[in-house]
Amino acid sequence: MKSSILAHLIAWAAVVAGLQAQSPVDHLPPQIRQLTTWGERPDFRHDGQRILFLSKVFGDVYEYEIATGRITPCTDHFRHYGFTRALYLSNGDILLSGPVATFDRMDKDARQKARSSCYLSVLDKSFNKPPVPLEVHCDEGPAVSRNQLRIAWTHGLQDRISIGDIVYSDGVPRLVNTKEVLSVASFPENERPQRWIETQNFVPPDDAKLTVTAYEINGTANSEAFVLDLATGQLSNMSKSPDHYEEVEGIFPDGRHTLVERAEHRGNHWPLIDAYRLALDGSGNAERLTFFTDFQGYKGGEPVVSQDGRFLCFTLGKSGMEAGQGFGLFLYDLTAAK
Question: Comparing C-alpha atoms, which of 77, 90, 158 is closest to residue 118?
Fold first, then answer.
């Protein structure tokens, strides 16, 4: 009997090892389908019919039509130095973030400096005009309201977050009512990030709160998801998971849950992650949605939610790549998953 059990265990271990050597693309569950074999940083248009995405880090911006699979270039009609983010504003225009000067794309340090030295601009939804600069520095991703022309962005040494409103004068956008709302020093000492914070989303439906990631809490590999009350300045830890890396991503339209990239860190500051749904009630409850890390060297990240809450879009990632680098878009049907 013991030898039979041992034989079964050895056989099962061989199966698991065989799966780990494969790609998750070859084993997609029925609720997930692959849209592209390239691209990263997706964002749903408000009608849920199209997805904005980047071709690569410092690449061009494209729009994917879900019904037809048609891909439309959005930024190939003007000179630029590539983009790190592209997000739909509530009026359909596009908020871009990217460097404003040339740099050595083959040099790792130069690429990192360019990522930290991006500036925001607004691209007209017609995709036939050059973008209008907003003249504000943005380090990593900005946040965009679903309901109004309000944005938030991380700046400085990725240690401060500000908000502001976009207004149009004769069709030209500009940023007004800017206000710093958070800094690393704002966090309580027992939950203070060592260096970096990053904003992600206004919490619908009233935009009175902001989701924020705090990295490397007290110098450890622990990163946590927070919610900032914009009226009171109160910070609330939503993940409460000292043994895990958690980075806030797209938010559900009811404001009750957010998506996070999550993994047990085991001392690794930047582990391979999968997408989870995290409750915003303070319970710390998290539900795993993707299982790409079950395959050695892969991850499923950058998840965002459609406005109707029915679909997710996320990207395939690989170990050893530049932060945020994606290898294709995937559509996740939450209704089918239920």
Answer: 158
